[in-house]
Amino acid sequence: MKIPLWASGLFLLLHSWCSRAETDMAETTTNHNVADTTIAGESNPPFENYNYAITDNVSIIIAPMEAVAEGKDHTLRCYVQNPSPAKSLTLKWYRGVTELKNETFDRPSLNVSLDLVITPRTADSGEHYQCKAEIYLGSGRYEEHTVTLSLVVYKIPDSVSITPVNHTGVMFEGKEYRLQCDIRDIAPAQYVTVRWYEKDALLKTYTFNETEIRPVNLSSTLVISPKEADYGIQYRCEAELNLGRLGPHPPPKVSSDNFTVICGCPVEIQPPTVVVEFGKPAAANCTALVPIYGIGWESSHGSVGLKERVPNLLWNVTEMRLWDLQPMCFINALEQCSKLLNVVVYKIPDNVSITPVNHTGGMVEGREYHLQCDITGIAPVQNVTVRWYKGETSLKNDTFNDSSRTPVNTSSTVTISPTRADDMAKYRCEAELNLGLQGPRPAPKVVSDFIITLLTAPVFLEQNVTLHADRGKTITLECRVNGSTPLQLQWQFKGNQIGNATRGRHSNLSIEALSQDKAGEYTCVATNTYGRARRTYTLLISDPQMNWIVLALCVVFVSLIVSVILVFFYKYRKGRIGYYEIFSDIQLQRNEVRS
């Protein structure tokens, strides 16, 4: 079929119109993408990766991911992802409007990047770095995109220091003072935190609202009101630059040197504490540590009026007659101040004694008793230590919390439960005044002893015994006993009393001209209120002459026995020899007959 000429012309006209409409639509889409990317780029904050779509398949990124430190090399990277639709790609770096670096990539099929190494200075903080991507898509079509990075440079401070505001020298108790922490050349200020410490205890935290990103000087203050007890206390401040996840970790921080508070009146008193016995003399010297107009002592005993233009002044009393005395040295300098002298007046106790509580007389074994140590007229009682001993063994120490400065009576008790072995045991209490380094050495003390007596039945120290003695001799029997007094000792012979009873713990019985009728059992009987005990001697008596007779008879008897044995042995042996001789003769005769 043959197409008419007019139809062919109409087809070519429609094809040309459609092609132009398609090209215009593509250009409109590209410009729209560029515009959207630019708007997105302008809204991105610093310290982030910048990622912008160039076409549906192409994007561009700028790093760093962190703030940069002053004076250190840092790399900025312009990174284009998936530029495959491009015929060519040119990346350019700018600082402000000044081009710093560029590179062209022909028909890039992979990701491409362009690095820029910078060495930032604090003056560069806030400077704009730009990466421009120029993409040729073919058919005369180009696309451009620019990403801007606002550089943030941080700087640790040159110094951190503490100074008092409008004050130098010693601080006076009760007044307010301001300490200022000065931080020099730090950036950026809005990321700075200042912390105040007393020793290691955190007192205060302070941050700043300044938006300046270049280095600035900052300061923070702390108000203190020191007391004399705060003498030598130390303060410090610490400046920390915390940039969050984009900054270095741990965050850099700089601390000041310790600031030491010297608080109180600038005088020195020697000795700082006066320890004096009541009725004895006392003295102390006050010396000004700064230039002064005058110095004096205020006291109810030994007061000294203001002395002008002298650096030191003596306080002196010849006889201490007050218990609660607080002399005060004062000076007139730029302002008036004073310092108290610590005075301790002591008194050795009038008496120290031990008595049983609610008990008199001896003690019963196994029962519980309380011994009380009474100390009368001692001062100051808070410096007293009472020590208890049994023999040389320490039992207990007592101290007292009474803050009285005048003489008082006090006491300490110890609980005991005596056994039989504790009879006549010695207990001791010592009242000692320990007045510190300024007090007397050795520390004064007063001692009391107490010996306990135990209420026990008699107990003999030795067991029953058997004794041998010769007739006509003299022997002494000894009786020793322990137990509560009064003790009565009575000797008995075969159950009958011998002589009169005696009192005490010891008794001897002498027996003269021993004979058999004096042999037998001798018993010592000990008696007291709590019981009775016995000890028995069994006495055996022998006659020396009878001993010799017995010995002689024994010798004769032994001799006879030996003689009988010898005779028997002799007879027996002789009989055996005769037998052997007869046997030999018979045997000889038999031999002759045979032959």
Account of the protein in words:
The protein is of the alpha+beta class and 595 residues long. The protein folds into six domains: 25-153, Immunoglobulins (Immunoglobulin-like, Sandwich); 155-260, Immunoglobulin-like; 267-346, Sandwich (Immunoglobulin-like); 351-454, Immunoglobulin-like (Sandwich); 459-542, Immunoglobulins (Immunoglobulin-like, Sandwich); 543-581. It is 15% helix and 48% strand. It contains two helices and 44 strands. Strands 13, 14, 16, 17 and 18 form a five-stranded antiparallel sheet that branches. Strands 38-44-43-40-41 form a five-stranded mixed sheet. Strand 5 (88-95) and strand 6 form a beta hairpin. The longest helix is centred in the C-terminal third of the chain and has 51 residues, at 544-594. The protein is elongated and about 170 Å long.
**Mean of pLDDT:** 82
Number of helices: 2
The domain tally reads 6
By helix and strand content, what is the structural category? alpha+beta
Annotated CATH architecture of the largest domain? Sandwich
Secondary structure topology:
Elements: H1 5-43, E1 50-55, E2 58-63, E3 68-69, E4 74-81, E5 88-95, E6 98-106, E7 112-118, E8 128-138, E9 141-150, E10 153-154, E11 159-164, E12 177-186, E13 192-198, E14 201-207, E15 216-224, E16 234-241, E17 253-255, E18 259-260, E19 267-270, E20 273-277, E21 282-288, E22 294-298, E23 304-308, E24 312-317, E25 328-332, E26 336-340, E27 342-346, E28 351-356, E29 363-364, E30 369-378, E31 384-390, E32 393-399, E33 408-416, E34 426-433, E35 445-451, E36 454-455, E37 459-460, E38 465-470, E39 475-482, E40 488-493, E41 496-503, E42 506-511, E43 520-528, E44 531-542, H2 544-594
Parallel strand pairs: 3-10, 20-27, 29-36, 38-44
Antiparallel strand pairs: 1-2, 2-4, 4-7, 5-6, 5-8, 8-9, 11-12, 12-15, 13-14, 13-16, 16-17, 16-18, 19-21, 21-24, 22-23, 22-25, 25-26, 28-30, 30-33, 31-32, 31-34, 34-35, 37-39, 39-42, 40-41, 40-43, 43-44
